[in-house]
Fold this sequence. Notes:
520 residues; alpha+beta; 3 domains; six-stranded antiparallel β-sheet; 17 helices; 12 strands
Amino acid sequence: xxxxxxxxxxxxxxxxxxxxxxxxxxxxxxxxxxxxxxxxxxxxxxxxxxxxxxxxxxxxxxxxxxxxxxxxxxxxxxxxxxxxxxxxxxxxxxxxxxxxxxxxxxxxxxxxxxxxxxxxxxxxxxxxxxxxxxxxxxxxxxxxxxxxxxxxxxxxxxxxxxxxxxxxxxxxxxxxxxxxxxxxxxxxxxxxxxxxxxxxxxxxxxxxxxxxxxxxxxxxxxxxxxxxxxxxxxxxxxxxxxxxxxxxxxxxxxxxxxxxxxxxxxxxxxxxxxxxxxxxxxxxxxxxxxxxxxxxxxxxxxxxxxxxxxxxxxxxxxxxxxxxxxxxxxxxxxxxxxxxxxxxxxxxxxxxxxxxxxxxxxxxxxxxxxxxxxxxxxxxxxxxxxxxxxxxxxxxxxxxxxxxxxxxxxxxxxxxxxxxxxxxxxxxxxxxxxxxxxxxxxxxxxxxxxxxxxxxxxxxxxxxxxxxxxxxxxxxxxxxxxxxxxxxxxxxxxxxxxxxxxxxxxxxxxxxxxxxxxxx
Length: 520
């Protein structure tokens, strides 16, 4: 039975039990104006055993707006360091976040953290606040990724107030309550290595291993620290394959934004691609393209090397650390091939499939074909291929156009045309599609089974920038209906929702003008 109040939750606060070197205890800074609960996430609340009725109470609003502590919690801001855009940035930390506490729920232990909750000793030149624009995007992003089955932080509540926050313009203040089993980052380890405190580095490693990776201490694993690095490498490799397979770009893959648990962490300037561009840069601030879509996997590996360098202070066996890192590329390829086999509807990845996939991505890149729909619309091709629909030899006589498709509903029908409509060079796309159909037929799977499997790998709905923008604009008017609609769709992005076709369409032209940057 779920708790009907925050008072009934069971807190554990394991991170707060570490030495005070790891954090500063301090209270959040409440808004100056009365806060308003814009949205609360019942699905996330269930993870900690909180009943939906509790989300409508003044007690809940007080906690998620920073006006009151979490009952039984231990509020703090954590310190860490990191490399930002490839450059050592020194000490960083929770500059606008407060960890309220850790709750032992029916689905594991979850830390609750406010973002946008005021200045801390780690704020540097920042004001400690977050704006409505970025807060709506973060609130939606965690749930979108969770719906896609991608490891991520979650979002519990979104609060807004009439406090003014100055960025490029004056914007409205907001606060997100986010949840994760842990917010420890690669940069948390870098911090103590740089400070030449191997004692505290060892304390942190022991905490993470004992709390989250106890298998690393099992007999036969060798060094627990090297085993930790190997498991983090494996999880990170899988995460990168997940991101790439749905056209997701993080935007700020600094080491302080890399989760030690392999979660998607810190949603700043992120984006799901509309038209495919292999070198897509979602962060307007990233002028050099360091975190472009097609380099995210290699950047993650670079970040893991930085983590290994930090761990070397407590694990002198360089060969063990190197071996732990060596498994990254193989793990990434294994997961990438599995993801793409599922998206293409293939029973298993085979030699030659890499060429088939690369040729599709090249065609998509040249046409800026919609990433999500290019894969989703593959499902009907094998049963609607012109050669399958027409008697042999009738192709040219039946009015086949330069794209290789037939006129009317014959010669492939609507699924064939809807796929080709995404490409400028329809003839090249049709030629690729015939190769694809031949490959699918080699598997011999019943169409119903193949299509069902494809729909479990190819979402119909993703959090496109223009959809997030529409939710932001509505939220600015105090209307959370678009947030609610998106939360419902993104929780189950695989199946078609009646009446929601507009949310599955390619982005409108005006979406190209949206710019997402680090300013939030």
